[in-house]
C-alpha cells in the first residue's frame, strides 16, 4: 500500500506518542552524553513522560493542522503545524512544531512528505515564513538534514546547562 497522509483522528494520539518516543530516543541519549548524567537527570528526569505530554498537548491544541502518515494501515509518522498571528506589518509566521517518523519506517521519504504537507498547510493559511527548531547534537542530525534538504536555513543557537 502507498503512503497515505491524512488529518488527525483522536484515536491516533496514543500511536503518535509511542512512535515519537521511539523516534526521539537517540536525541535524549545524545543529550545525556553531552550534558553528563548529573545535569541530564536534573534537566530531563523523565523525558518520556514529558515528551508524551508535549505530543498530546500539541495534537489536542492543533488537531486541524496535524498531519498523520499511514503506511500499510499503520501510523508511522506525524507533523504538527502551529499557525501564528500576523505581526503589525502583516507578516504571518508558522511553526513546524513537531515531526516524528517511527524508526522502523525511517529512510523511506516519509519525513519529506510530512514536511511538504506541513508547508502546504502553512501556505494555504497565508503564512509568510516557517520556523522549525531542532538540536545541534548528533541525535538531531537526521532532522537537520531533512530540514536543510527542504530549504530551511539554520540560525545557530547555543543552549547552555549547568548544575548548581
UniProtKB/TrEMBL annotation:
It comes from the Bacteria. Residues 3-164 form the N-acetyltransferase domain. Its EC number is 2.3.1.189. It is an enzyme of class 2 (transferase). Gene3D superfamilies: 3.40.630.30. InterPro entries: Acyl_CoA_acyltransferase, Bact_Acetyltransf, GNAT_dom. CDD domains: NAT_SF. Transmembrane segments: none annotated. This is Mycothiol synthase. SUPFAM superfamilies: Acyl-CoA N-acyltransferases (Nat) (SSF55729). Keywords: Acyltransferase, Transferase. GO terms for molecular function: mycothiol synthase activity. It holds the Pfam family Acetyltransf_1.
